[in-house]
Amino acid sequence: MICFALFSGAVNAQEFDRSMLDGVWAESTNFQFGCRPDNLHQRLELSSDGKTLTFNNDRKWKINANEVTEYSATVVRSTKNVLIIKYGSELVGIPDELREWEMRFIGPEHLLLANVRQPSDRTLA
In whole angstroms, what is the distance from residue 103 CA to residue 68 CA? Predict the structure, then answer.
């Protein structure tokens, strides 16, 4: 399983299928399995109003000079299986162009594909 996301203006995510967030998530990078025990694992929680996605880590995660166990992102737009989110200032040192992500949940096991959204890329597929 793969995970992550970033940028735009807040929109309600009520139509998003919340069951897509069930379970534990991990990022797969550098051609390594995401589910390996030494990898950071997360639970994802969508706020009741659908405007905030919270990432709850299973341990401290170092992002630049800070360590976090929980952080959040604003939901910019959504469909049944897509969340477009933008990370806020709590994740220090991330360039603006890497703050907005499209999280697309696919397949029976809710595999997540996340892509950085570019400023010219403003529509949901």
Answer: 21
User: 116 versus 16: which is more confidently predicted?
Assistant: 16
Picking from 3-12, 30-39, 78-87, 111-120, which range would have the lowest pLDDT averaged per residue? 3-12
pLDDT the model gives residue 117: 57
Looking at residue 105, what is its pLDDT?
84
C-beta pairs of 97-103 under 8 Å, 24+ apart in sequence: 98/6, 99/6, 99/7, 100/5, 100/6, 100/7, 100/8, 100/76, 101/4, 101/5, 101/6, 101/7, 101/73, 102/5, 103/3, 103/4, 103/5
Nearest residue to 10 via CA among 44, 52, 47:
52
Averaged confidence pLDDT in the chain = 77
SS3 3: coil
Q: What is the pTM of this model?
A: 0.72
Q: Residues 18-51, buried b or exposed e (16+ Cβ, 10 A)?
A: eebbeeebbbeeeeeebeeeeebbbebebeeebb
